[in-house]
Design goal:
This protein is an alpha/beta fold. About 45% of the residues lie in helices and about 15% in strands.
Length: about 170
């Protein structure tokens, strides 16, 4: 399956999840902005896939990333971020969502597991109550939160500014 065919509308996702469930497969949901995909994202998604079944990844829309991360974000448009995530072998489906969190998608597809990264604890996952309502579970996966798109952007901008200042002093 190519990356483009893994990117689904909400309705297509609901239909796909129904088919997978009828076939006896479990559903794991992971979500995030995935702006400038880095190794932390890959490890998070690999950990989510290791929970078993099909891995659905919900990618924040450009508007929701901007609301969550501020002006200047995202760096990469939602369609491209979704395509990059969909290209990963561990990912079975990708959906772009406009909300600030994934509660609506959780209610729509009722994943067996909601996978969150290590920047959360089981008690701090914002969607945990919605998952618990139908008997699903939350799992924390991935490596320690040593990677951050915001930090990558910040460090590159700082280096770039330092480099520019250094060059202008040499002139």
């Amino acid at each position: 399956m190519d990356a483009h065919s893994k990117i689904l509308s909400r309705e297509e996702l609901r239909e796909c999840v129904e088919i997978w469930r009828r076939a006896g497969e479990g559903i794991t949901l992971a979500n995030g902005a995935f702006d400038l995909l880095h190794v932390g994202h890959v490890r998070y998604l690999r950990g989510a896939k290791a929970l078993g079944g099909r891995l659905v990844v919900a990618v924040n829309s450009d508007e929701s990333v901007r609301a969550l991360k501020g002006e200047g974000r995202p760096v990469t448009p939602a369609g491209e971020r979704a395509e990059i995530v969909a290209a990963l072998a561990d990912v079975d489906a990708v959906v772009i969502f406009p909300e600030l969190d994934v509660r609506a998608i959780i209610r729509e597809i009722r994943p067996d597991v909601q996978a969150k990264g290590t920047d959360y604890t089981a008690d701090s996952v914002p969607e945990r109550e919605v998952v618990a309502e139908y008997g699903g579970r939350v799992a924390i996966v991935g490596d320690a939160k040593d990677h951050s798109t915001s930090e990558i952007i910040s460090s590159r901008i700082s280096r770039s500014q330092f480099s520019s200042q250094f060059k202008s002093r040499k002139s």
